[in-house]
Here is the input.
Amino acid sequence: MRAGIIYARRVRLAGPQQGDRVETVYDHDRLNALEAVSAAQKIAFAPILFQAVWCLRETGLLAALERHDRDGASLETLVDDSGLTPYAVGVLLDMGLSGGVLFLKSARYRLTRVGHYLLNDPMTRTNMDFTQHTCYEAMRHLLDAIRSGKPSGLQVFGDWPTIYPALGELPDEARESWFEFDHFYSDQAFSEALAKIFHYRPAHIYDVGGNTGKWALRCARHDPDVRVTLLDLPQQLALAQDNIEREGLAGRIDGWPVDILKAEQLPGDADLWWMSQFLDCFSEDEIVHILKLIGRSMRPDARLAIMELFWDRQRFEAAAFSLNATSLYFTCLANGNSRFYHSKVMLKCLRLAGFHVEDEYDDLGKGHTLLICRKLADA
Ligand SMILES: C[S@@+](CC[C@H](N)C(=O)[O-])C[C@H]1O[C@@H](n2cnc3c(N)ncnc32)[C@H](O)[C@@H]1O
Here is the structure.
């Protein structure tokens, strides 16, 4: 198990304090005054920079710059390549320079490494698409969401209490970006989690919050004998059903429609309960409530497997940054009261609900943690 530190580095202490201490990027003020005032301007204009980079990507200017990577491209070349006016190309390129996306040498523009990632890195593209299509307009309502505890930003799409029953009905780009974002992170972790989960030889898995059935399908393909039951809202199960039938696995994967916050009892046949990126959809009190409900329903010998993203368990600062930003999507759009938690919060909820952690794995996929839990005998 790793201590919960982000991007830690060991600092050698000189003088009378001999030895090492561990420093993380979040435990001190990192910038001098000039760096700080510069960073503050990046924040003050962040939405404008974001939209400018979006335009650089969508107009094909980033791609054109990549094509001309060897010698760089002049303004005229980029005007010709993009079909935009010199004015339009000029304002975007200037913002690209100030945003560190491009550099200009001998009147020729080239992509910086940041520009290359913005254009080609699947994770960056997925995050940008999600920010633009799902979150951007809604985030204007964050202050209201923070004050009210309600997902005030969701009103830009319609009138729902939370985003979950609305997922199938969001506008195309918002819906596709949401699923792409969700699956991008969980898919990679699924591959590594599969071996760990099947080490326990489950015969029947409950996939709580099973969404489109991706994990259930992976399990059913992995083990020809395993059965999987999806527990999710009825609207989600309808989406999952199509995928399961298309794969011809309806004989071993079924669904149990439930609003887990309203249920008083859950089915109790599974020997393994699986929850991936599920508990982050709920507040701390709701998590304890859900865990107690599962504890009451599950067989005493069953295991509970929780796969989550914890911001304190990340190896890279960019990952912690992304998770803390995504928490505000939960605040403003998803339900107003949930988030990606610090791992100690989840461990506290598990203790309060009468579970202990039997095994723990960090760094699955892009930074998921898998907790294998058992019910305490006296719970
Ligand atoms: C973020 S998705 C997780 C998807 C999937 N497990 C994964 O790892 O990619 C959360 C899932 O929880 C479901 N969900 C949210 N609130 C729920 C509730 N009150 N009862 C049952 N399911 C719920 C949603 O419908 C959605 O499928």
Q: What stands out?
A: The chain is about 45% helix and 15% strand.
